[in-house]
Design goal:
88 residues; 3 helices; four-stranded mixed sheet
Amino acid sequence: MSKLETFEIEYKGNKYLATEVENVFEPGSEDTIILASSRLNDALVDKNGKFVDHEAEFVDERIFAFVGDEYFSFSKEEFMERIIEDFD
């Protein structure tokens, strides 16, 4: 099992976990996708689902989906299995 590589996205002085992985949702694609902590999504949108500012919209446009923080403790293989189950 290989370790999931993560990085942090900073927004409004707070840091949120994210990872960039191969896009398994488009067979044959060489593209990658970014998945980030759902806590980041909570910071980007208000209770009505609207972006809190233009920076929030810019950050959101780079992210394929948001997942719970527990996903970032999985191995890369388990992470990939889980996102396929959750988003396919």
